[in-house]
Amino acid sequence: MKNKLLKWKENDWNIPEEVNKYELALELMENLKSTDPVLRDRLSLNCLWRIIYLDMLSKREANNLLELALSEEHLFHKLGSMEDDSVFNRAFTALTIHAIINYHNNKLEETGEATLSKEVIIEALDKVMEFFKKEKDVRGYVDVKGWAHSVAHTGDALASFAESIELDKEHMIDILKGVREKVSIDYYVYKNEEAERITTAIMNISNRDDIKDEDIIEWIRSFSEIEQPEEHPNYHYFRENVKNFLRSVYFRFKIKGVNLAILNEIEDVLNKINERFNEFI
């Protein structure tokens, strides 16, 4: 399979017509479990995305692929385990879900044709949010084996869900709450720009007509209400994660040119967290 994919890639991903694209997609899903970063990331994921985005699947096949991605075999495979190879399957499945939702959004906007039903999208979001909450292996880059990046990849998926017109304000609030919980973990320090990938989802939420500035301000304020761990190094891990994330949100909002009340709220929360260092100004 690797040699075949390399050949197709060298030929500008020209997949032979006789190849059944859905059966190929199923094979590629299996490759997402691989610890070979070239096979998993550069070849299988890229090929899978082309199959999805270039409309090579029927509506039924796209729905079946999403159902498989959300199953115990992929997104929920060994969920809760830490620092084993199962994370690659889960993390790259999250990117596959991102692609399917994004494809649906784009096609709906361009043609008015829905690939997925509202019920399917809501169920998919519920499962992704469950995964996001329960995923414990949040490593970014793993030596030799390449990217795991489960949190960043889920951030990409949430960014696609945030653009779904089938979802409403309540779903967006759930995403905001889930993000707050995930970025404030105290057992690991995010160091591979996870904050930026998640911030894109926040920006997409803020762009929606059903989300008001007051909703974003209330969510930002809620970060100051999180109980900080007392023990070390967890105390530092928590603070570093929250501060880095809020800084990412701050500068993205600033570039966008939002209501100053949003920026002021972020500053207030950051200053409260950073109070003991602000004494040295």
From TrEMBL:
It comes from the Bacteria. Pfam families: DUF2785. This is DUF2785 domain-containing protein. It comes from Oceanirhabdus seepicola. The lineage of its organism: Bacteria, Bacillati, Bacillota, Clostridia, Eubacteriales.
